[in-house]
C-alpha cells in the first residue's frame, strides 16, 4: 500500500476554486464513502478548511489512486479533472508524510505557526474513523502528525505571536480604521469555531460593542452571553450592519450571506464619516458576494487578499527549527513503516518453517513408532532449536536492512525465495484514542514523483477553531 496526498490550498488555488472543492461537515461522510469506494483507494482522510482541501489516502497504485481521487474532487467541483490540474498538488509516500507533518506543525498555514490546524486535523481524523475509512497506515500517520504538531509548538517559538487567521485578518482591518479596532462596534456572522474565535479576539483587542448573529439563534445567544455581546436574529442582519464598522463573516453556508443588495442598503443608511465598513470574509465558500467589494465605502478582506499580504508570518524565524523537527520525525516514521512492512514477511517465514518441522515430525512418528513419547519430544525440541537458530540471524538482519531506504526490496526477496504468501494487513483499527485532548491541549480548538515507501481545544472554550 502507498500513501498519497492530493489537495489544493491558498498557495495553489484562488478562493473561487477552494469554494468549489470545499466539503461541508454534513457532506464529509458521503465524500469519504465515495473515496474508499474507488478501485484504487483503500483508506481516506479528508481535510477541508478555509485554506485547504486535502485528501490523505492509502492507495494500491499511484496513477490509479491519483485518478480516483481527482475524479471524486472533480465531481465535487462540478468540472472535469483537467480543469483542476493546475490547482492541485500531489505528494507520494515519503513526500506525503513530510507534507502532512508540515501541515500539522503549522508550516503550511496561511499564518505560519497558527496552532488551530491541529484541532482541524484531529477532527478530520475522527470523521474518517467514524466513517470507517481509516486503516492501519492512516491511523498511524494521523496519530503521529498530531504528536509532531504538538512537539513543534512545545519545543519552538513558532506560535510565539499567538496569531491565527482571525488575528491576522483583524490586523489588516485595523489598518483601514482610524485609531484601530479599539471602541469600534463589530458584528460576527456565524457562531461556529471560527466565529467564536472571532468574538474572543475582538473582545481581547478592545472592539465593541459586539454583536453575534447565526442561523441557529440558540448558539448565537450562548456565544454572545459568554463575551457580553448582543445576539442579533439573522432576519435583522441588514439593520445590524448599519450600526457597526467591522464585520467578521465565518459561516458554513453554501451561498453568500452578505449579498451586494444587503450591503448596498446598509451603506445607504450609514454615516460616511465613520469610515469604511470593513468586511472580513473568513469562510469557504465565501460569505461575502463578489460584487460587494466594488461598492464605495466598503473594504473586503478575504483569503485571497490575506495570502498576498501574509507571505511571511511573525514566526518565520522559528520555521527552520520546526523544519528540523519535521525532518527527523519523517525519517523516524519512514523507518517504522519499513520495519512494520517486513514484519508480516518474517512471520510468514517462521510460519513456513514451523509447518515444515511439523510435517517432518509427523513423518518421523510414522516411520519410527518405536520411539517413546520422551524421545519424540526431545527430537522435536532439537529440531525446533535448529530451525530457530538458522532463522535468527537472517530475520534480525532483514529487519535492520528493511529500516534503511529501499529496504522493502529485502522483504520482497524473502517472499520470492521462499514462495511466501503474506496476507494483506488488516485495514481497520480499534477505538481511536484522543491524542490531542480538547480539555487540556492549548493548541486545539510541490508535487513529488512516485517513489517507494512509515509511527513509530482549546482549554475551556470548545468553540475555538483555526483554518475552519
Task: Describe the secondary-structure layout.
Elements: E1 2-9, H1 15-21, H2 25-36, E2 41-48, E3 52-59, H3 62-77, H4 81-84, E4 89-92, H5 94-105, H6 117-130, H7 136-155, H8 165-174, E5 186-189, H9 193-204, E6 210-213, H10 217-226, E7 230-232, H11 237-241, E8 246-249, H12 260-268, E9 277-281, E10 298-301, H13 303-309, H14 319-367, H15 373-402, H16 408-418
Parallel strand pairs: 5-6, 5-8, 6-7, 8-9, 9-10
Antiparallel strand pairs: 1-3, 1-4, 2-3
Helix pairs in contact: 1-3, 5-7, 5-14, 6-7, 7-14, 14-15, 14-16
Order of helices and strands: EHHEEHHEHHHHEHEHEHEHEEHHHH
The CATH architecture of the largest domain would be 2-Layer Sandwich
User: How many DSSP E strands?
Assistant: 10
CA radius of gyration: 28 Å
Enumerate how many helices there are, as a single number. Answer: 16
CATH C-level label of the largest domain: Alpha Beta
Q: What do we call the CATH homologous superfamily of the largest domain? A: Glutamyl-tRNA reductase, N-terminal domain
Q: In this structure, how is the largest beta sheet organized?
A: 6 strands, parallel
What percentage of amino acids are in beta strands? 5-15%
Class inferred from helices and paired strands: alpha/beta
Low-confidence segments, ≥5 residues, pLDDT <50? 425-468
Number of domains: 3
Helix-residue proportion? 40-55%
Mean pLDDT across every amino acid position: 82
Short synopsis of the structure:
This protein is 49% helix and 11% strand. With 468 residues, the protein is of the alpha/beta class. Strands 7-6-5-8-9-10 form a six-stranded parallel beta sheet. A four-stranded antiparallel beta sheet has the order 2-3-1-4, with helices on both faces.
